[in-house]
Amino acid sequence: MKKITLALSAVCLLFTLNHSANALVSSPSTLNPGTNVAKLAEQAPVHWVSVAQIENS
């Protein structure tokens, strides 16, 4: 039984490795209005908040 299972799994593995995967041709998802790739690539500085600032607020 173990040999049959091993042989079957080897055949399945070889069968799946012989086929190429095709990517679906589709357009990328749209961005929100007013947003472009350049704006998304920009990095804004981080505003660090201390514990004292949180306690005082």
From TrEMBL:
Coiled-coil blocks: none
Gene3D superfamilies reported in the protein's UniProt record: HAD superfamily/HAD-like
Name recorded for this polypeptide: Acid phosphatase AphA
Native source organism of the sequence: Salmonella typhimurium
EC numbers for this chain: 3.1.3.2
Enzyme kind, highest EC tier: hydrolase
Range of residues in the leader sequence: 1-23
Record's keyword annotation contains Hydrolase: yes
Keywords per UniProt: Hydrolase, Signal
Lineage summary: Bacteria, Pseudomonadati, Pseudomonadota, Gammaproteobacteria, Enterobacterales
Domain of life: Bacteria
InterPro entries: HAD_sf
Molecular functions (GO terms): acid phosphatase activity
